[in-house]
Task: inverse folding
């Protein structure tokens, strides 16, 4: 009820005013002041009481809302009816059970189905007569047709006139429970009609009952209807009776397999055994396992990396081939694809794996990390591929001071990707679910392509050198002879003598360049023999030692005593080592023009193992000026040099790499500009059979 306004309360107060009230004019000033003070105190007291009442009203309203929510949104139905079952009030769940909106429940009855109407009548009557909480189970009719099994818990309550004429009922839907009970009762009533074995066994294993379908098992066990179970099954009976829990075991019978459920009967000393023929299921599982094994064997045996990522680009599957990158599959599962992408290729791959234009708000990862190709952009679901570099996991180095080459830190790969979809539950097409793809290592292929290009260049150089060699050398020899005659007939320290000397020096430079061109374009066929690598390196350094000491270069020579001998050409390898020492000398003099404690050239040699093959690793490590990063990949290109034109032809490292390659070895250049340069050469240790094969090839070439 809405409260009265202040004006209404004031008028009512005036009407209730006692007519015998003393008039104000008959009161003294002191009495008036006293009365005014009391009125003010009374007014403040009334205001305080009003505030307390307001707070209490707010709390009551909050509690009312809370209990109203609990009432309306309860998982069971609450009904208030009269003695005839007319619905006076219900919650939302109750209205939902009856299939009627709550606002339309006026003059509606809580009605049981025809067969259960007497039960409901007696339930209401007993509830009103006893005043106790009463329970019953019956079927309630649903508006528009249908019914459900319900558990009714009712209690009579008084109305506003203290008359017990109302009933509050809690209704719980027990349809599922009743159906389960009916199913169980049906199985119990008709065990003989059950196509699966059903048995009842006493605690000692004695068979109390078995249906016809159990005869196959009993015959296999060599038992009878009134016999006993095998000892293994008697133990299971004892265990389930002790634990009170069901236990399922598989039993093979001739060509069939049964799943036997041992179900203990509470407070009884026997167990029911329910059998289910699972032969087809076992065969299907076995076939599935074989298929899965074949699939896994195929996937794991493929040398390429097979991967699967979700719609945001995080790995969900990787085969064992990912170990070639130094990772275990479980290490990358849950990681983003960008974990293994070379930083310099992120933007390249970003342009390839573009996010759908219609979904600009889709976030796959950080802005500086590529996002994945969403094939909703192309309903043809075309497969895409891209070449890029991957970065393997940094492996734990050995305690040796030998560094792995830079090329081992980057792998050139071809990435293939195609999207896969799953059907939506609402049958409105398919939802993009992620991507499948293959990562193929094309590092060797790229190297072969580079080698082919380089071979083509060298072939062109050789052809040019062969054609121009005689045309250049003949006039150069003439020029040198004439200049020598002029120099012989001139006095020293004259201009003519100096010019003649310059002509001879430059002519020799041209002749040397022509010879280098021919050497770089021809495959070296020097005589190979049993070679002690220590002597070869030491002899090369001894030839340069006077110049190195003159330049104040500190040489550190460290060759392991167990370094094995190799099979190669002494002259060719010495040419390589002399060229590397010359390059180191130039780099150190550029950085340290004078004497310095860091003006060091380190030469080391150790035995290593690569893919179970023995190699000798030779390292020339100078602390010189280094090579800029953007020029590092060009160091072995013919005619490319970081030296001034007067100090280098650009053919030294190119020829050195060719010689190492002809020895079935590998040469790698590492450098940090301003700090160091390191040349790493790996030469194979060959056995007698391999040497004979090489000798045969050399003889064929000759």
Result:
């Amino acid at each position: 009820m809405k409260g009265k306004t202040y004006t209404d309360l004031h008028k009512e107060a005036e009407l209730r005013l006692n007519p015998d009230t003393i008039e104000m004019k008959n009161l003294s000033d002191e009495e008036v002041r006293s009365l005014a003070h009391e009125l003010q105190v009374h007014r403040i007291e009334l205001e305080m009481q009003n505030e307390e009442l307001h707070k209490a009203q707010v709390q009551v309203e909050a509690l009312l809302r809370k209990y109203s929510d609990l009432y309306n949104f309860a998982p069971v139905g609450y009904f208030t009816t009269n003695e005839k079952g007319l619905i006076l009030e219900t919650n939302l769940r109750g209205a939902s059970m009856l299939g009627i909106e709550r606002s339309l429940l006026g003059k509606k009855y809580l009605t049981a189905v025809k067969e259960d109407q007497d039960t409901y009548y007696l339930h209401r009557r007993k509830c009103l007569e006893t005043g106790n909480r009463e329970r019953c189970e019956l079927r309630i009719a649903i508006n528009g047709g249908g019914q459900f099994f319900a558990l009714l818990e009712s209690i009579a309550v008084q109305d506003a006139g203290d008359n017990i004429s109302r009933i509050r009922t809690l209704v719980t839907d027990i349809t599922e429970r009743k159906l389960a009970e009916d199913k169980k009762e049906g199985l119990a009533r008709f065990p003989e009609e059950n196509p699966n074995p059903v048995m009842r066994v006493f605690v000692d294993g004695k068979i109390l009952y078995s249906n016809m379908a159990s005869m196959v098992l009993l015959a296999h066990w060599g038992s009878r209807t009134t016999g006993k179970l095998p000892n293994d099954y008697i133990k299971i009976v004892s265990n389930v009776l002790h634990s009170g829990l069901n236990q399922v075991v598989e039993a093979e019978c001739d060509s069939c397999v049964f799943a036997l459920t041992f179900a203990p009967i509470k407070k009884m000393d026997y167990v029911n055994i329910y059998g289910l023929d699972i032969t087809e299921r076992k065969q299907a599982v076995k076939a599935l396992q074989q298929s899965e094994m074949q699939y896994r064997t195929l996937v794991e045996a493929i040398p390429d990396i097979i991967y699967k990522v979700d719609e945001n680009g995080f790995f969900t599957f990787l085969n064992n081939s990912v170990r070639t990158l130094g990772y275990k599959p479980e290490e990358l599962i849950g990681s983003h694809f960008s974990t293994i992408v070379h930083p310099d290729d992120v933007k390249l791959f970003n342009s390839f794996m573009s996010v759908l234009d219609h979904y600009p708000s889709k976030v796959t990862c950080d802005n500086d990390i590529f996002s994945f190709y969403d094939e909703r952009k192309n309903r043809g679901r075309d497969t895409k591929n891209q070449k890029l570099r991957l970065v393997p996991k940094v492996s734990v180095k050995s305690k040796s001071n030998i560094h792995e080459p830079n090329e081992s830190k980057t792998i050139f790969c071809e990435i293939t990707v195609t999207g896969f979809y799953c059907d939506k539950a609402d049958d409105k097409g398919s939802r993009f679910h992620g991507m499948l793809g293959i990562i193929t290592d094309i590092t060797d292929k790229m190297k072969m392509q580079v080698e082919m290009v380089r071979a083509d260049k060298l072939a062109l150089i050789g052809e040019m050198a062969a054609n121009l060699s005689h045309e250049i050398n003949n006039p150069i020899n003439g020029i040198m002879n004439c200049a020598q005659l002029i120099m012989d007939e001139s006095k020293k320290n004259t201009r003519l003598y100096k010019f003649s000397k310059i002509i001879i020096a430059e002519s020799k430079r041209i002749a040397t360049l022509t010879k280098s061109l021919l050497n770089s374009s021809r495959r070296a066929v020097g005589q190979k023999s049993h070679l002690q690598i220590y002597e070869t390196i030491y002899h090369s350094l001894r030839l340069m030692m006077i110049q190195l000491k003159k330049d104040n270069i500190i040489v550190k020579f460290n060759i392991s005593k167990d370094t094995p001998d190799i099979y190669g050409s002494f002259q060719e390898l010495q040419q390589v080592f002399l060229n590397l020492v010359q390059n180191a000398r130039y780099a150190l003099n550029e950085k340290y023009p004078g004497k310095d404690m860091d003006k060091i050239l380190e030469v080391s040699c150790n035995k290593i193992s690569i893919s179970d093959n023995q190699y000798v690793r030779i390292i020339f490590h100078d602390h010189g000026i280094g090579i800029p990063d953007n020029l590092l990949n060009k160091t072995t290109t013919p005619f490319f040099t970081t030296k001034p034109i007067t100090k280098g032809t650009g053919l030294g490292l190119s020829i050195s790499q060719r010689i190492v390659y002809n020895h079935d070895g590998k040469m790698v250049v590492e450098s940090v500009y301003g700090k160091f340069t390191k040349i790493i050469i790996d030469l194979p240790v060959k056995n007698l059979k391999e040497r004979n094969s090489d000798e045969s090839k050399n003889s064929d070439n000759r």
Summary: The first strand starts at residue 77 and ends at 82.
